[in-house]
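>> received
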Amino acid sequence: METLAVKWMATVAMMTLLACTRGTLLHAGEVPLVFNSAVMTPLPLGYFPTMFKARDLDGDGFPDLVVAGRDPEHRLITLKGTGTGAFTPMQTLVAEKFVDWLDLADVDGDGRVDIVAAWRGDVPRVVVYRGLAAGVFEEAVVVASIDDGTGRDPQGVALGDFDVDGDVDIAISSYVGQSVEVFANITSKGSALSFERVTRVRLAQFFGGYGYPRVLATADLNADGLLDLVANEIGGSRVVVLMNHAGRFTRGVEYRAPQIGVERPGIAGLALADVDLDGDIDAYTPALLINGEQKIVLFKNDGAGRFSEVKVGSGSPSGYAFSVALADLDGDADLDAICGAAIPGTITVKRCTSSVDFTFEEDVFIGFGSLVRHVDAIDYDLDCDLDMIVIDGPTNVVYTRRNATPQAGCGGVAQMQGTVKQDAPPKMPRFECPQIPSLDRNEDGVIDGSDTALWLAQWSRTTREVAPISAKGTPR
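>> returned
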């Protein structure tokens, strides 16, 4: 009898074949997005990567990676970039419990990049790994504890000078605590790092408490010179904006994703960019739908920090949307999309055909892994175009593909990039597909992100066991 894993791999193979053979309708002056074959960098056995940040840490010009992850060995990993798409081990740091998100900035003002992370656990803590020379970091220093019980399970991290006093402050989103907390940097010159909690804002307080914020991002949304905060609510089907008032943040303003078919999607992630090219910063999210094609949702900024218009674009044609990055992949000044999905893991690259209408055409489709948790576009080979970097959690690899798209802005003449030798991709991993959930999982009569959040909590890849949860309960 054919197993689910065999059926899944056959499905992925067929979808990949169709993607390679179907034609792409191009508009005048456009070229298809093209990427070279994959390069895989395996991570240590048992390391479940959740996201990464890229920065030249050792000063050789090539972007390196700091990879957050869930790891029974309590590790945080940095990888050295080689310019080929492959990465080599650089330093293994100690990370108590799990790290779902991290960010990079010069927190102590010594001119070197530091790592800021949130340790999840019974007593979650905010930590800083201070940067030394040549990409080496000190072990973590705890700068704040979230020990009042309500802030358990921190996930998102965002850094910025929120109080405009010249140093870097820290903002944290808590998944189970359903809040955003801001810690002001009060470190005196030459002294140990010191932070003070100045804000705690409760999210999702007006619609039953199923917010579950994962990702936190920062930008000046209303052009007043102050950095504001935006978080996603995977369970609330919303994004929430926290406006900065002289270094303090008040109640969040929530914007709901639109109804798509019979569902209101779970908002699985979040990123900020000027998507419609009108000079202000918008928010965009992967829209996780239990049935049908996945979508991208654009929350358009009206210039005053309000997301007054919402548009829906096409995302992954299969799987469940979990990650998305918008970037100019062909040099034509608009933002194309790299979409990551789960069950099965897929990567879909879509060329933007209209920034105003938020429309895309699919150029590349790749069956890969089982949960594409984080994607980004980075010029890792320094050839002035943006390449693809992806992580898949269960298969614990860093996956890259070099951008070979003719660039519209390359001296006015599009030229195809040369090829480089690529490592052969590994065999598809065995994957047991979980049972597809009933749509209205919490039995409230509405199909929305709360149902998705409850299902994702139950389908936990942390320990490869099902977490105890009731239909109307809260994930542990």
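>> Helices lie at 4-21, 449-458.
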